[in-house]
Amino acid sequence: MSDTTNNLNQTESTYSKRAKRWKIVIVGLIAALVITVIVSLNIGYAFISYSDILTYFGTRIPGVNNFIDTASFSREQLANQTIILDVRLPRILSALIIGAALSASGTLFQGVFKNPMADPYVLGVSAGASVGAGVAILWGAGISFLGFPIVPIAAFLSALVTIFFVYNISRLGTRVPEMSLLLTGIAVSIFLAAIFQAMQFMTTDHKLNLLVNWQIGSITNVGWTNWWSVLPFILVSIILTYIYARDLNMISLGEDTAQHLGVNTERTKKILLVLGSIMTAAAVSISGLIGFVGLMIPHITRLLVGPDHRLLIPASAIVGSIYLILCDNLARSIGGPTEIPVGIITALAGGPFLVFLLRRSKQKYRM
């Protein structure tokens, strides 16, 4: 009896120390994210001082705005206020939630499939969103629904329909084999990618540029309406994913082990795949196909904090936010007045990283 009690006390003590360390890590990452957001507001073609930025924020804070005389603002100050509050801030916050969504979903998919090469687009979400966005761009541009642009709505719904289709094709009775799901996702992605390419081939006017920008991935024109439209889906999905972090730990050890420990593996995998797909669909619906974030960030974060998904999921979301904000800062500063789509920056960084992963896996296989 005493041995059991000692083991229990030791386990509780170990978990308490680990939880304390987790809190320090998360608080440190959140502080780094806040600093990144503040610094990013000062980055751009137009230089705006931090004192002016604080003043512009004060004009939107009830109580504080009573002490700021906006009538005395010069024309340049009014223009800078618009740049900060209506251009840079929604763009930075959009990069924040898109990076968090892609990184968290990438962590989730790598855990569910037990495959380090899995990413948020593996089940055809990106291809489905592309077709929906392409249809809206070509034949529904300018249309809105309840005040929201039709393109992100069409992309989001098309992505969800694609996931539903892939899942049902892959299902064998009450089970969904992982290999069947992956292969079906690849097949459907190739088919839908061909449809999207056909759309590009048939388009000769300015809409072709919109299709190309979508395929590259950009948050240049993302505003407050886009941000608010996807925030609930991404935020709720990340929270629910974290609730299943312990079960995901068990599944990563093997489904037989997870079942012996009381985890309903099939039900848990279904829920996690749906949550990951919703996050990915919401992110790409406003930004297009920003690649490699969901592949790179989980690996980088795993090196920093370890494989426990209770820490890995929130840490990946924060690191992904920081990473995409920094990439967007680079995209909107290195080209001067002409901005580079952020998808190009992430691809340039992600390509070599993927080669590194492949070589690392090859070396482990040889050993």
Quick rundown:
With 367 residues, this protein is mainly alpha-helical. The chain is built from 14 helices and 2 strands, in the order ααααββαααααααααα. A hairpin with a 2-residue loop joins strand 1 and strand 2.
Topology, pairings included?
Elements (H helix, E strand, L loop, with lengths): L1 H39 L9 H9 L16 H39 L11 H15 L4 E2 L2 E2 H21 L7 H25 L4 H10 L7 H20 L1 H9 L1 H6 L4 H23 L5 H13 L3 H23 L10 H25 L1
Antiparallel strand pairs: 1-2
Task: Give me the count of strands.
Answer: 2
Poorly predicted regions: none
Average pLDDT: 85
* Global structural class: mainly alpha
Strand content: under 5%
Q: Name the overall outline.
A: globular
Helix fraction by DSSP (H/I, runs of at least 4): over 70%
How would you characterize the largest beta sheet? 2 strands, antiparallel
List keywords for this structure.
single chain; 367 residues; mainly alpha; two-stranded antiparallel sheet; 75% helix
